[in-house]
Amino acid sequence: MRQRKRVVRIGDVLIGGEHPIAVQSMTKTKTFDLENTLRQIRRVQRAGCELIRCAVVNRDDVAALPKIRAAITMPLIADVHFDYRLALGAIKSGADKIRINPGNIGERWKVTEIIQSAKDRNIPIRIGINSGSLPDDVLAKYARPTVKAIVQTAKRALSVFESNDFTNVVISAKGVDVRDTIEVYRALSEQYDFPLHVGITEAGLAFEGAVKSAVGIGVLLNLGIGDTIRVSLTADPTREVVAAYAILRALGLRKHGPLLISCPTCGRCDVDLEGIAVKVDRRLKKYGSDMKVAVMGCVVNGPGEVRDADFGIACGKNVGAVFARGKEIRRVKERDLIDALFEVIDENFDN
Ligand code: SF4
Is the domain of 294 the same as that of 196? Predict the structure, then answer.
């Protein structure tokens, strides 16, 4: 059960409350490199990304923001570290939200200026606390970036926002590992009703990073914690978006076009099931509708194991079965199986 949260608007996307968990990603280009930045944004948007964040590192990046904003339809988030003037510039340049880590912005008055500017433009601020940049006195008290140290740092950062009567806030706080991060978010969700941006930082290369993110983000979402997610991968950002939807779909929280399920195969399988599943997956990408399609390795157990799939095939030796909503409706030669599956999908599904 998701916990009730405040609602925050980022451009035309609402997060928190009962709104769907929004999928976001971050560009990996130099933000001032307009051509490549826009190309990357369009690619992640085609993959289903709903919020995009760009690093704002210098004045050239700030200058690029209005052009990016004008060229895209997705809300744009500016990610600013260290220099409060860049944050002010990003806000003036039309960012729909900014992300700062108050711990590295410095003096309180600088954070206050950012807050006032965001208030004037009525845009939210994400407070991104990171275990790598905790205040010295907090670190001295706890000796290392413990869960308590991170939560105390988040509280301290939030107190500046609260004293400025600014509640247009999203929080994120990353621990040193997956388990710490889970505990940090659990503590924050008990104490605050601001929407939470959930992610596992520095997760790693595509496979390990997706697994770590699925564990960390998945556990939290299953507890009802998290209002927007980013899967951070050392990989093309479209893979972050694909992984994010896979997590959301596994938990039944979002649908996002066709979903392929396939069996792991065993000694009963007489076909190259992986090859068949890859071909089916490729053809499914042309379909926009939400549907579950199963590719199973044998006709003995296959159909029974995927009764809840909309469509499926169960492969046998030289012959296979096509089924729709649990019922076998065709038996065809193995080489015709994929075409037969898509004929059935086209007959039954209005795309
Ligand atoms: S569907 Fe058949 S081949 Fe696949 S795992 Fe189950 S029993 Fe084995």
Answer: no
